[in-house]
Amino acid sequence: MRKILVTGGIGYVGRELVRQLLEQGDGEIHVLDNLACGEHRLNQMDRDKFTLHRIDICDARGVKQLLHQLTPEVIYHLAAVHYIPACEASPGDATRINVAGTVNLLDAATNRARFVFASTAAVYSPGDRAYTEGPENIGPIDIYGITKLQGEQFVRYFHDCKRIDGVIVRLFNVIGPGETNPHLVPAIIGQIGQGHRRVRLGNLFPQRDYIDVADAAEGFRRLGSVASAKNGDDPVVSNLGTGKSYAVHEVVAQIGISAEVPLEIIQDPDRIRINDRPRLCASTQTLEAVTGWSPKKTIAESLRAAWNARTADGFV
């Protein structure tokens, strides 16, 4: 069986990706994770069916020892600081983890492993269009997007040096059960769970392309297995979204339907982000052309599942 390594495999999309890889019997699954999201997340995993390596990707020596020992054929690199306010508050930490940590993995990879890099739609410049993957759309406006774009550049470099086979996946906004950061959906669910019917939120103008966590994981798995990633001169670069975008008030309304409560939105000045973009929407043309697949779950299904999986602290 081929060996597959998932970094950040205890995190949001990572945990679902590990579950799917095990379910599909795709190989011998190894997870590299420092458990920053909490050991409790292991309770919802088939712990005896994969091998956990508790290593921080910033530990260059530990990463190199592990990868030289395992020699994985496929590496799904999902470990990162994803929460934009956290990146803005500690840009040095974000750069250390998202850039230097990625370089540690790339440098340690052996036997030209397939390297599937979790990038983000935050690498794109602000606009009101469905984003294609071309260079003309690149222009991050926050620390998170900058670090991920730098990660992409290092993936390209190591791919061009024929040390890996690179696949760059630009992920849009993920929703559904298992969230690990206080993004929009957990913020809404948390307030409802505390008995509030007037939901306090930050910027109300953004529209986002929301993809269910199960679809996001399946997209990674499919993009990681496409033959064209091995044979092309350039890395495969693909968006991972639905091609539809929704406004904040639409998300709130849908969660209200799931919770069976009327909700009112209050804009909270303390929650407003200075750097925010009006709209994010993915062109799914490359994703469908490369994989023959497109995301299946509707936003209503995802938000209902998130509500039903809510916890006391609002994380879903």
Main sheet: strand order: 3-2-1-4-5-7-12
CATH topology of the largest domain: Rossmann fold
Order of helices and strands: EHEEHEHHEEHEEHEEEHHEEHEEHH
**DSSP helix fraction:** 25-40%
Number of domains: 2
What characterizes the major β-sheet? 7 strands, parallel
Query: Which percent band covers the strand fraction?
Result: 15-25%
User: What top-tier CATH class of the largest domain fits best?
Assistant: Alpha Beta
| Parts with pLDDT < 50 across at least 5 consecutive residues | none
**Can you give the mean pLDDT?**
95
Total of DSSP H or I helical runs spanning 4+ residues: 11
Shape annotation: globular
Could you give the distance between the termini?
34 Å
Summarize the topology.
Blueprint: E1 3-7, H1 12-24, E2 28-32, E3 51-53, H2 60-70, E4 74-77, H3 84-89, H4 91-108, E5 113-120, E6 130-131, H5 143-160, E7 164-171, E8 173-175, H6 184-193, E9 198-201, E10 207-208, E11 210-212, H7 213-223, H8 228-231, E12 236-240, E13 246-247, H9 248-259, E14 264-267, E15 281-282, H10 285-291, H11 299-308
Parallel strand pairs: 1-2, 1-4, 2-3, 4-5, 5-7, 6-15, 7-12, 8-11, 9-14
Antiparallel strand pairs: 10-13
Task: Briefly say what this structure is.
With 316 residues, the chain is of the alpha/beta class. The chain is built from eleven helices and 15 strands.
Outline the structure in words.
This protein folds into two domains: 3-174 and 210-240, Rossmann fold; 176-209 and 243-280 and 296-308, UDP-galactose 4-epimerase, domain 1 (Alpha-Beta Complex). The protein contains eleven helices and 15 strands. The protein has helices at 12-24, 60-70, 84-89, 91-108, 143-160, 184-193, 213-223, 228-231, 248-259, 285-291, 299-308; strands at 3-7, 28-32, 51-53, 74-77, 113-120, 130-131, 164-171, 173-175, 198-201, 207-208, 210-212, 236-240, 246-247, 264-267, 281-282. The chain has a seven-stranded parallel beta sheet, with helices on both faces. Strands 6-15 form a two-stranded parallel sheet. Helix 1 (12-24) packs across helix 7. The longest helix has 18 residues, at 91-108.
